[in-house]
Structure formats: structure tokens, C-alpha cells
Write a structure and sequence with these properties.
globular; alpha/beta; about 300 residues; single chain; eight-stranded mixed β-sheet
Length: about 300
């Protein structure tokens, strides 16, 4: 799957839905009557991040729904930091499930999609069957772990940089997004992304206001008030964590696991932060197995 525009030849469908006050661009596959499975992409990607997962998951019997989350690609891109509060991002996911008429659904998230996934599972446990979260921290433990572990704090310095006004946009967007491309390439294995892949990402970043919207996820998270106790998760949750993630240490995953009533942590050795792109067959098989235990 080398071109995000070649949807039809893969049997994928393109649509849009207005949820929680924003219009989201959506790609879906599988039969509408099958169990709903929502895939949540991370920073700085868009729905195409799941190009290796959509067909296998649909063939496994799921109605796979993959939104461009608010601020990304051709979905609406509000510019206020407050529009990206984690409560609002989680409410987007629930409203999306409502739009498809699903009282309960399965959910898979990577990176920021996992951050949101943690919060959806914590705040709306009755709506979820089973959850898979990949290389994204529980929003209540990210900062706490950085305070406990200086090496994690060092790896998270980019988050502080993202808080600055305008400077991150200029730095990441200049020279045809050379900064964003370098961030991805520097955190991945040499051949993780197929030729031309980063140009497809750049096409999504070129929409007016996209870079600011993507950065506002980080800005809003830093501005929220954490509760005295981290939020717990009731739904069965599988945490897949890359063994060679340059952004997040294993202690972040372990702290999240401790907040799961029914959780399991598995380290994917030999994988970078982009584990679902580098090892799609392994990841797909494990996701299908985990979700299948709830059917």
C-alpha cells in the first residue's frame, strides 16, 4: 500500500462524519454489521499510519474505522489549544462510535492515539470491549515518570520545546517539513518507511493550520490539571511496547500497566517507536488474537 489515494483498489471506503463539533475524515473497511474497531493514529501521522493493519483486521471480521483525528490531514483543524484537551479528544472517539451506532467497540491506538486510548478506556469503560495501546503513555503517568527518571525527562525535552509559540511551527515546517521528516527518520530503523512515505505525510501537513493543530495536542496536555490519583482502566488492555523506542522508556509502560485492572504488557524486541509499520505481521497477529478473546 504505497499510495494513500488508492483506496478503492484495496476495498477501502472514504467518508466523513461530524462528531463532537468537528468534521472528521474517515477511511473504513470491512462489513458495517461487523464489530466496530476504531484505529487511532499518532503524531505526526494521519489515517495512512494504519495502512498495514486495515485489510488484515477487516478480513478478521471487524468493521475497521480509521479517522484522521481532529487537526490532522483533511479533518477540521481548530486552532485553539483548548480544543485539544484530552477530555475533548476522548469525547471525539465516543461520538465517532455513536455515529456508527456502536454501544460497545474495540480500540487500537499508537503514540498519541494510545494517549487518547488510555483516556477513553479510563473515562468510558462501559463502551469498550478490548483495547490495544502501542507506545503511547497514560496521560496521568507521563509527567510523573519524567520526574522519577532523569533519562525519560531527557527523552521528553521535545515536549517542552513544543510549548513555545510559533517557534516549533517554524522549525518543523521549514524547508518542506525537513524537521518533521528528520524527527521520524531519526526515531525509526533505516528501512522502516517505504520510499515516498514521508512525502505522503508531508501532503497531510501542508493543510493550513495542520502543524499548529498537531502541536496543540502537546500544549493542551501540559496545561491540564492532573488528579491526585491517576485514572485506572477497567477494560482488558494489551500494551505493546517497542524495545527500541527512543522517546519512551519501559518504565512508562510499566506505570501504565499498574493502572490496568486487567492488563498485559508485551515488549516487541527489535522494533522502534514505529513497531506497527516495521513488524506489521507480528503486530497484526497479536492484535487479532487479543481482540478475538473478547468475541
Amino acid at each position: 500500500m504505497n499510495d494513500p489515494q488508492s483506496l478503492l483498489q484495496h476495498g477501502w471506503r472514504e467518508t466523513s462524519k461530524t462528531v463532537n463539533g468537528v468534521n472528521l475524515h474517515i477511511v473504513e473497511a470491512g462489513k458495517p454489521g461487523d464489530p466496530l474497531l476504531v484505529l487511532l493514529h499518532g503524531f505526526p501521522e494521519f489515517w495512512w499510519a494504519w495502512r498495514h493493519q486495515i485489510t488484515p483486521l477487516a478480513e478478521a471480521g471487524y468493521h475497521v474505522v480509521v479517522p484522521d483525528q481532529r487537526g490532522y490531514n483533511t479533518s477540521d483543524r481548530p486552532q485553539a489549544v483548548a480544543d485539544y484537551h484530552i477530555d475533548i479528544l476522548a469525547a471525539d472517539v465516543i461520538a465517532l462510535a455513536d455515529a456508527y451506532g456502536a454501544d460497545r467497540f474495540d480500540m487500537v491506538g499508537h503514540d498519541w492515539g494510545a494517549v487518547i486510548g488510555w483516556w477513553v478506556a479510563a473515562k468510558y469503560p462501559e463502551r469498550l470491549k478490548r483495547v490495544v495501546l502501542m507506545d503511547g503513555p497514560h496521560p496521568d503517568v507521563w509527567g510523573r515518570q519524567a520526574l522519577k527518571h532523569p533519562t525519560q525527562a531527557l527523552k521528553s525535552t521535545y515536549v517542552a520545546f513544543f510549548q513555545l509559540p510559533w517557534v516549533p511551527e517554524a522549525t518543523l515546517g521549514s524547508f518542506d517539513f525537513a524537521g518533521l521528516k528528520a524527527m521520524i527518520q531519526g526515531s525509526a530503523h533505516k528501512d522502516s518507511f517505504e520510499p515516498g512515505a514521508l512525502e505522503h505525510y508531508a501532503d497531510a501537513w501542508r493543510h493550513e493550520g495542520s502543524v499548529t493543530a498537531m502541536l496543540n495536542y502537546y500544549r493542551a496536555l501540559r496545561q491540564r490539571d492532573e488528579g491526585s490519583e491517576p485514572a485506572r482502566l477497567a477494560p482488558p488492555t494489551l500494551i505493546l511496547w517497542a524495545g527500541e523506542d527512543v522517546f519512551l522508556e519501559r518504565n512508562v509502560a510499566e506505570a501504565g500497566l499498574a493502572l490496568c485492572d486487567e492488563g498485559k504488557l508485551e515488549i516487541v524486541e527489535g522494533a522502534s517507536h514505529w513497531l506497527h509499520i516495521e513488524q506489521p505481521e507480528r503486530i497484526n497477529a497479536r492484535v487479532i488474537e487479543w481482540l478475538g478473546e473478547g468475541r
